[in-house]
Amino acid sequence: MDYTFQYGQVWPYLPYLIKGAWLSLQIAFLAFCGGMLIGTVCAAVKTFGGGFSRHAVNAYVVFFVNTPQLVQIYFLYFALPDLGIFLSSYMAVLLGMTLNAGAYLTEIQRAGFESRRQSEMEAAEVLGFSRLQQIRYVILPHVAKVLFPPLSNHYILMTLGTSMAAIFGVEELTGRAFNINSETFRSLEVFSIVAVIYVFVTLIASVALALFGKFAFRTKMRVV
Amino acid sequence: MAHLELDKVSAAYGKLRVLDGIELSVAKGETVGLIGPSGSGKSTILRVLTGLLKPETGSVRVAGETINFDKPADIRTLRNRTAIVFQQYNLFQNLTVLENVMIAPIKVHGRKRSEVQAEAENLLEKVGLANKLESYPDQLSGGQQQRVAIARGLCLKPEILLLDEVTAALDPELVSEVLDTIRELAAEGMTMVIVSHEMGFIREISARVAFMADGKVVELGAPADIFDAPNQDRTRDFVGKILRH
């Protein structure tokens, strides 16, 4: 191998890349929050609702979990304009990721709702708790604790998933890497730096989430 | 006068009849043991007495008052007078030992936190867990968790304590620490109904023992009579099998 590394050409772009990483985090965060909103409502419908509403939620989940996210965003960005709906690339990516997250988070949260412990509910009832007190003191703390690790995982996955936005010309971390690559042709240098930034960003998020989980829910620390 | 009276109580889970005309009374300060094979209805009696299962027919009287199981106020009265300790402890996993004991008196009965805390600490000291106040249930052994559950029941100041196979989930070395706690309560005059397979213990602690089978009280009497000179064949059969071990 007689490749000469020339990081010198790429270093000056570091602040530019970091700004891109910031945009990646933004997209992931917004899509996750939107997805949580959809997921919570849909999980509640799946657990407690009936009839039509449950079928509608099932159709949504099956459709979005079983198609590639990339195809979903392609549809929003390139197919919707044929129907007269125009989305910016940023909006298409954000909406696509939100809808996709909503479907996954529905399933994750449904599992949490269903894991409430009958024995504790019975104890609460015998001790005289009202329905509201049962939810407040028994169901919610338990569900939050059970759901925290899988939700954290999904959040990390979504952070990495934002790289898909580059394909649509959104200048997040990967998109900016494409730009630098086409200016300098230093692919190895550019993408190794970008990889390290991704690792760094997700590690920070993992540690932060793990610490939060440890203090809020006494979950076991496990970052890597 | 009987403090707790069941009169021809029958109950069912769906179509399965689990209690069939139960007659049982417990005097104030008395300890009554319930023994019998699995599925004979022992635990079901306790579920009725805590309002978790509504009897189909018959009546339950506590301190002379007949409980109407369709009236939430009556169910509340019943739950105020009784406390149950479950076989699987059923502690709140997200609360500390102290919080487990304090939550119902504070949140349900609206009592003052400082007053309840002093009582809860006393009770936990009594069951030998003064140094575990801030621990969570999953950090305790089974015997310790069961003693927390007993303290949680006692903090409600019940008139009647119901114990549902409280040693069944414990390993043999931990059984004695829980039994010691119950012995003390009996000595202090707590009214108790105890479901257990610990025959030696039932015999020692109960004033009277009821042998149950197929949802009926087959025989009721002093421990010596039930264990040494049972009248019914069914009782003799059961006691014989157990004592041979």
UniProtKB/TrEMBL annotation, chain A:
PROSITE patterns: ABC_TM1. Keywords: Amino-acid transport, Cell membrane, Membrane, Transmembrane, Transmembrane helix, Transport. It is a multi-pass membrane protein. InterPro entries: AA_ABC_transptr_permease_3TM, ArtM/GltK/GlnP/TcyL/YhdX-like, MetI-like, MetI-like_sf. Residues 21-209 form the ABC transmembrane type-1 domain. It comes from the Bacteria. GO terms for biological process: amino acid transport. One of its GO terms (cellular component) is ATP-binding cassette (ABC) transporter complex. The chain crosses the membrane at residues 20-45, 57-77, 83-106, 154-170, 190-212. It is found in: Cell inner membrane; Cell membrane. One of its GO terms (molecular function) is transmembrane transporter activity. Belongs to the binding-protein-dependent transport system permease family. HisMQ subfamily. Part of the binding-protein-dependent transport system for glutamine; probably responsible for the translocation of the substrate across the membrane. This is ABC transmembrane type-1 domain-containing protein. It comes from Puniceibacterium antarcticum.
